[in-house]
Amino acid sequence: MIYLDHNATVALRAEARAAMDALAARQPGNPSSAHAAGRVARAALEQARRAIAERLEVRASELVFTSGGTESNNLALLGALPDPCGAHVVASPIEHSSVLGPLYELERRGATLSWLAVDGEGRISPDALGAALRPETALVSVGWANNEIGTVQPIAALAALCRARGVLLHVDAVQGLGKLPLQLADIDLCTLSAHKVGGPVGVGALVVRRGVGLRPLAWGGEQERGTRPGTENVFGAVGFAAALAAGQGDAQSIARLRECLWAGMADTSGVRRYSPLRDCLANTLSAGFAGLRGEALVAGLDLEGVAVSVGSACAAGSGEPSHVLRAIGCDEAAAAAGVRFSLGAQTTELEIDTAAAALRRVVERMRSAGGRAVVG
Amino acid sequence: MAMRERVVVGMSGGVDSSLAAALLVEAGYDVIGVSMRLWAGATDSGCCSLDDFLDARLVAEQFGIPFYVMDFRAEFQRNVVDQFVAEYARGRTPNPCARCNQFVKFAGFWERARELGATRIATGHYARIGLHGEAPALLRGVDADKDQSYFLFGIDRAVLARTLFPVGGMAKADVRAAAQARGIAVAGKPDSQEICFVPKGQHAAFVAAQDGAAPRGGAIVDADGRELARHDGVHRFTIGQRHGLGLSGGAVRYVTGIDAVSGAVQVGSAGQGEATGLTADGANWLAAIPDAGSRLSIRIRSRFAPQPVHVVRADANSFAVAAESGLKAVTPGQAAVLYDGERVLGGGWIRTALPTAAAPGEPAWTA
User: Measured between alpha carbons, how far is A283 from A149 in angstroms, rounded to an integer?
Assistant: First the structure.
């Protein structure tokens, strides 16, 4: 199988597995326990925390381990505004559902939402943010890099603006971690996930900068300074740190392979590239094929041994047109026809050539079968 | 190595389509399983529940076949649900399962299958495909109690030629036993019975809840037009219905006519509901259009023993038949399916019941 769905998940890296195996051999206890086994676990947990924090250039005490990106996004947004009645929240409209979900929950609890304008590449300009901010704006949420089309936001400029206006900023950096140099200055809350960098599923983190108060989502323990009670996922944290340290490949070579893939499909009739040419994740290529259903393209490619997604894997099967493609100006048919190819550190040129050839075959077959996009 | 023929099998998560998939794998086909997502609404009475998709997925995994859930909601809404609501508002009684087969489960499904490079589709329906001369023919299922050929008359002939019904030659009990023998987890799963998007007995509430339907109330009248009671919508009635009429005392009365324009629902005795024939339109022919005078049999409901009829006229779009012994509760909107023995010749949607006494100007039906 040629796996081109790394934005959905990256297979567990050998380094992560080895680190977890090494920990298992030491028979760790509960990190809160006062005996030797507990100390083994506590040391492993805190070493992992420190290693991740150092890479992000934040304090270890600012890193809260969670069960993953979804929990981190919920904790950040719902935790930052425990009493959202009357609060004004500004957010990017092209976010993952785990950001949109808690935003809608804030709205149900009385907050007012404003959606930021994005351009045809999904980009949010500092001007757009400035125009959306109000005196009563309490929180801004923007994703660092988009999971579907790969657009990277000008986070430093947006963060500086929020800081100047005294507004709390949350950044979902799940897709940026390991792929972009993340500079967390002026960012108050930042979401991370382990399995997108080859760590285990079921662990993530929220960076909570010093001075930012969060109301927990769960109650009943003092772990993670009370912000996230429950026995810590020590194996997960250790695997996360090891995967992150192992690196995610060279962005330039990955980008070169992505352009090979694009070159291999650019002649296909009706193809359109959604991923921007500049300021885009090196591994991400989103494309649409006029008149064809993304759902059927994904199935057709799967039968050829190529794994890709429509939009985000989390929305797959919902059959809904991509809200990201809608936001960058696609009509409903085009938004249902998008396919996301996301490369990884191990992707080879041969795989890219094979995948492009498979794609051309599948598209040609679907066109001859008279495939339509959205049934209307 | 010869290329194996690729077949896409519609998998509902039930025992019939699960065994169908297994039999196709055993027969050497390159099998792909697809569950059709038909209905997005809140009801969860029939197919398309997450549990059903999960059942289908696990069966596909058991037999090592690729499996996909595909979205047919737009086709289903337009061709089945909207039409269901509109038919009740017109005083007719729709047949959503036959509509779904015609427009979604075969026409739409075949198109998606071709996109996947398949040359055949298969389902778990109880019907058979045989040859009549050179041409593929749709035949009744072997299990008379489970036969679904009535619901399949609307399949396009070209699609029928590419369709497989792997369990159509089996009895239900044998299907369950064969599934059991293969360790298929859903071998004992109960059959789905009701309309998948409407909870049992709640079609009137469903219709009333749809935008734009606005069914009107009116009078319940006897054969002479005398008002017996009032009702609050023609969508609550179907021809032959005898419960829920709100009439007290007297002989059992049946709905014999529905006039959506005036809102009148006519009731009468069983004999007053009998017709001498019917007309149907929206015809689909799976064989040559029958000649006038042909002696055939007809089914006008799913649970209905075939009745002898002769063809009065038939063309590409419509037909009229006369019944030697009368037809009970001919219901506009339902499917009328013509059989020559066990072979389905075609069918259409009932437009009118022809009355007991030929009205002036009507042709004489007796040949």
Answer: 10
